[in-house]
Structures are given as structure tokens and as C-alpha cells.
Amino acid sequence: MAGLNSRCPGCKRVSCNGCGIFQKLNTNKQVKIRFPEGFRIERGTGLGISFDVGTTTVAGMLWDLEDGRLLGVETGANPQAAFGADVISRIQAAVEKDDTLKRMQALLVKKLDEMAMQMAEQIYDQVQTGGRDGKVFIRKVSIVGNTAMCEILMGIRPVELARAPFAPDYKGTVRTEGQKLGFQFLQDAVFLIMPPIGGYVGADALAVYSYVNHAEHSGRIMAVDIGTNGEIILECENKKYACSAAAGPALEGGAISQGMRAAPGAIDRVSLNGSFPMQDIVCRVIGGGQAMGICGSGLINVVALLYRSGVIDGTGYMKSRQEAKRAGVCEKICRRIDEGKEKSQKRRFLLTDERAPVYLEAEDVRQLQLSVSALRAGMEILLNKADMKADQLDRIYLAGAFGCYIEIESGIAIGLFPDIAREKFLQAGNLAGTGAAMALLSEKTLENMERQSEEIEHVELAKESRFQELFFKHMSFPD
């Protein structure tokens, strides 16, 4: 049997160029989790697991605490979806009834327990068990996630999160035993639940900052973890700010007519093919084969392309065929604009062919604009706090699986990112998951994270007088 280091932790193949599971936790270019330069693993004993608990997705990594080897990876859907797709719905459900909170907690605990068991089973024959009845024994577990997910996992009613000024209901790192949270397989493990920064800026954002703080010892740095709730952190001249922008589900394929997550069958990239005036669009589909929908990176890509091509104007309005022709749009692209045979049918743009059609509807563009304006307004608010301009930044880290696949030029074209030197952008992968692993493997890093959670100033966007002005400003695409 091949050694542990020779197999991909995602698909377990001996040779792998980055399978879907593994890519979700890293970038499409990484083969291993990459810790920042200067990070040192503190040698321990036994095995540990780091979990990144998101509203939609849960990801876990199994580690050898002695040498920091990554032994296994599991990802899955958060089973609380029945209580709402977004974090606000989950908070409301957890607050309304104690019984509902207990059910939500039990579902999440069961899911994490199952993922831990699956990872342990994969390595059972290759490690000394040291556990009960010959089972693999997990000694330590670290948890990061948004504030609501961490509180629900601990059985805390998120009362303060449900009302202004939206404060966390816990503070500092919570150390407890698995059995006290209801775990079975992980009942004997020590749990470390990382502290939030403030409000909806949770432990996952703190984990992102911990990574960046290790990687960048000085400078003016912004980190953006893009998702349904986009967390933004800015550090400049010993000042540290963080905010959470409610970007909505569009960037993860939600609220889009044929939107889907980044899975096989999703369009993730759209480009022009041929020379003017015979140009047409070509779609890249994850996994090859027939397109079934479009994911967030593909949505940003195609809207940017249609804006540059003249099909969409600066307000986000999708032109008719005749309007597009008058604007000089290529004939083949104009033919893709579907006016709809019925008056009730909305204008839409055909991305594929009519045998298996995937459309971008005019309303989809609006949904994307809402996400873009929320995130960009949040970035601008933090820059204003630090009295600086975007072009003064030394680096912008784009965190999360989604951040890895965004085409930077497309993001700039629609105003999601500021128009600054492209080399300042760094698509860094799942920094929240990596930060959780760093806390697991280094007590010093854990102590630093506890201190950093107190040092970062939480900015509540709803209280900022300029937020609404900036939000409406960035609803329109840049000239």
C-alpha cells in the first residue's frame, strides 16, 4: 500500500492533479495545504481534526499532531438547511424555540461526528489506534465558523445576534469536551471553538486574519472572504478593522434562475471565440460534458463579458437584439438574446445551445449587482476608516474556495474589486480552514488568535452613515 503522503487526501488516488473535494479546501493550483512562511508546528501526540463550519458547507481535515501531516479531508452540506438557507433564518429559528435550537445543534454534531468517523476509517490500518475498542482516537478538535454556527454548535441561543447591535453571545476561545456537546465518536476529544471578532464577523474571519498576519509582517493588507456573508478585514499602520457584508446567495449560485454550486455540470468560465464580427461565446463546464447551470465564478465572468461586449449597459440593463445591434454587438451574440414569445417572459441570454439551454436572465444580473455593491461598499467603508485609497494597498487576499476561481479582470470590470495593480491580488485558497488547522497545530497561534480577536475593531456597516450612499453607487458597473 502506498504511504499516506503519496495519496491525495481528497480522492485517495496515488496520482491526482487536484480533485473536486481537495480543490474545495485549497486552490486549483495547490497539491497540499500551504501554511504561511514562519508558521511552526508544535509537536504533539495523536490525531486532531480542524473543522470549518459554514452556513452551507462543512469541511474537516484530519491531522497527525506529531508532525503536522494532513491525513484526510471530508466536506459535506450543513444539515441545518431545513431551518433556512441563510444565516439570518438559522438565527431566528434558534432564538424562537429552545427545542429547535437543540435539534439544530444535534444535526450539526451528528454531521461532524460522521465526518470524523469517515476520516478515521480511511486511515485505520495505517495508524496506531490508541482508542476505545481499537478505534482511532482523536485527541483534539479545533472549530472555526461564522458566529451563529459556532453558537448553535455549543447550544447557545444567539439572542444578541438577533437584535441590534448584533453582538456575539460568547467571547474568547471556548474549551470543552466532545461529550458535553453531544458527540459520540468525538466524545473524548478536547474541543477548541475559536473566538469571534464581533457581530457576524466570526471565528472563520479571525482564522483568515491569523493566516494573513503570519504571511504579511507589515504593510497595508486587505483580506476578503467572499460568500453569502462576506467578511472583510483591513490592517494598516497598526490599525485593524473588520466588517461583514450581506452579499446574499448569488455568488454561490443561489437566487439565480439556473444557478448552482461549483459542481460538475456548472459553467464556471465564459470567453469569446473567433474574430470580430464573427465572435461567439464559449462556456467551460466543470467536469466537461453538458452544462446544467452556472456557478458564481461563471456568473461574474459572463456578466463582465456581456458588459464589455455591449449586451448589458452600466446600469445592468440587458439590451434587446435591436438595441445590441445598434450598439455594435456581433451578430452571433445578438442572436443569443431571447426576447421571449410571451409578454410575461423575461429577457434572457442563451449561454449554451438550445438543445440543453442554460440562460442568464436579466434578473440574475440584478442579483449579482446586489452582492457586488454590498461587498464593495464594505471595502470602501473600511478604507475610509483608515483614511486611505484602494491603490495604497500592498495586497488584497481573496479567501475561500470561491475567491480562488474568480477571474480578477472580470471582478474589476463589474466593480467587485477596485481597479488597482493586478499583482496586488492574491487568490489564497481556504484560509479559514487553514487558520483552523494552524490553531490546532500550534498553541502559540491559538494564543495569538485570542489576542487578535480583541485587537481588531468591528465595524457595523448598518451604523455607518455612508454605507447606503456607497451601496447605491456600486450598484452600477464602472465606466
Protein model, in words:
By secondary structure, the chain is an alpha/beta fold. It is built from 15 helices and 18 strands. It has helices spanning 20-25, 87-96, 98-122, 147-153, 178-181, 203-215, 296-309, 321-326, 331-335, 362-385, 400-405, 408-413, 431-441, 443-455, 467-473; strands at residues 47-53, 57-64, 70-77, 138-145, 174-177, 190-193, 221-225, 229-236, 239-246, 266-273, 280-285, 293-294, 337-338, 348-350, 359-361, 395-399, 425-429, 457-458. The strands form 4 sheets. A 6-stranded mixed β-sheet has the order 3-2-1-4-6-5, sandwiched between helices. Strands 17-16-7-8-9-18 form a 6-stranded mixed β-sheet. The chain is globular.
**In which range does the helix fraction lie?**
25-40%
Taking the alpha carbons of the first and last residues, their distance comes to 58 Å
Radius of gyration: 23 Å
Flag low-confidence runs.
1-31
The overall average pLDDT, rounded, is: 88
Coarse structural class: alpha/beta
Question: Quick one: overall form?
Answer: globular
Instruction: Report the sheet with the most strands, covering strand number, pairing sense and barrel closure.
Output: 6 strands, mixed
Strand order of the largest sheet: 3-2-1-4-6-5
The proportion of strand residues reads 15-25%
Core attributes:
479 residues, alpha/beta, six-stranded mixed beta sheet, 18 strands
